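Worked example 3 (structure in, sequence out).
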């Protein structure tokens, strides 16, 4: 097989992986946004930063493996990776991560309530001992 063709096949494979990774990292933003409510301005800033970083990483991939030449198969590969991850993995991953996150949120709320109660009792105890 031609070395040039192998290089392009490798880049196509990496493009598919990059597409999946892009949505994987975006899923983390989605999970955090559902667990911790965000203001619309903060969401816009987060999205802007995410897509700037993503753009630079895609540029670095294409520059490193294809000397900066954008090929249709790179874009196609990234799209395929996004579609595959978005349909096959993302719904299950987000659902599972939200269940785990909500579980820990409940634990933290209970701990917070317990700490508030302990703090109030201590404060009352110390107020009672004033000279």
């Amino acid at each position: 097989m031609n070395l040039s063709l192998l290089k392009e096949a490798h880049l196509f494979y990496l493009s598919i992986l990059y597409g999946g990774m892009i949505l994987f990292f975006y899923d983390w933003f989605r999970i955090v946004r559902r667990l911790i409510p965000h203001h619309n301005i903060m969401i816009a800033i987060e999205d802007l930063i995410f897509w700037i970083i993503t753009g630079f990483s895609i540029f670095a991939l294409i520059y490193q493996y294809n000397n900066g030449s954008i090929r249709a198969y790179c874009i196609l590969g990234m799209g395929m990776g996004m579609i595959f991850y978005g349909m096959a993995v993302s719904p299950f991953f987000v659902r599972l991560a939200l269940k785990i996150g909500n579980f820990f949120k409940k634990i933290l709320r209970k701990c917070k309530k317990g700490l508030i109660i302990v703090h109030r009792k201590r404060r009352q105890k110390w107020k009672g001992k004033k000279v």
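Notes: Residues 72-128 form the longest helix (57 residues). The chain has a mean pLDDT of 87.
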